[in-house]
Design goal:
216 residues; alpha+beta; Elongation Factor Tu (Ef-tu), domain 3; six-stranded antiparallel beta barrel
């Protein structure tokens, strides 16, 4: 019979790490986990391999939008430039100043959003600090990127959340007019709409039960 295991996780940026509750007692008499009937509350890196039985679905919402997924640049490696910044290399790289941000995918260490400061047909220098040896690695850079960095940016939202924003603006207008009853009603409606949208991402069966006075 398989023993029960308890897992948790923590999130840092776009990375999700799985941790496991350590149920083994410690042999150190000064440890809080020493002796029988001691509840161990520490979580550590997984204590054993799990070949099946765990499924994670994680959605990361970045602060950028890839406008054209077909507009890519192959990168063959990277190194440190003379000023301590990251220099990625390739061939036929764009020198267009419109390429100010890129998103790297397929790299062990560099995946994510980077700002381009220098453009050359054989390399780009990024505003990312790097101190290390030259590395040969194949990766892909998306170069048609819209980064959320000023008030002119358009935030891609589903239609349902667009309606929620309208309700939020109406609530703020009511607040400015000191119409507090209307403000509280609209804010409650706004939070309810956002909650419904978030709950729609949760996988699983939805059960409804009829009320006491319902027709049976």
């Amino acid at each position: 019979m398989a023993s029960a295991k308890e897992y948790g996780y923590f999130i840092k940026g776009q990375k999700l790490a799985l941790i496991e509750k350590d149920t083994a007692l410690d042999n150190d008499v000064n440890s809080r986990d020493y002796g029988p009937d001691v509840t161990n509350v520490r979580f550590k890196s997984p204590q054993s391999s799990v070949t099946d039985g765990i499924e994670l679905e994680y959605i990361y919402s970045p602060k950028y939008h890839i406008n054209d997924v077909s507009d890519t640049q192959a990168i063959t490696g990277y190194e440190e430039d003379s000023t301590g910044f990251l220099k990625v290399t390739g061939s036929g790289m764009s020198t267009d100043t419109a390429v100010d941000y890129i998103v790297i995918r397929g790299s062990d260490k560099l995946s994510g959003l980077h700002k381009v400061t220098t453009r050359n047909a054989s390399y780009w220098i990024l505003a990312t600090k790097y101190n290390g040896d030259a590395v040969t690695e194949s990766m892909t850079a998306y170069q048609d990127i819209d980064v959320l960095n000023d008030s002119n940016d358009e935030i891609p939202l589903p239609p349902y959340l667009e309606r929620a924003i309208v309700v939020y603006v109406q609530a703020r207008i009511a607040e400015d007019r000191a119409e507090m009853d209307k403000y509280e009603y609209l804010m409650a409606r706004f939070h309810k709409m956002v909650e419904k949208h978030e709950s729609s991402k949760v996988w699983g069966a939805r059960m409804l039960s009829s009320g006491y006075h319902a027709i049976r």
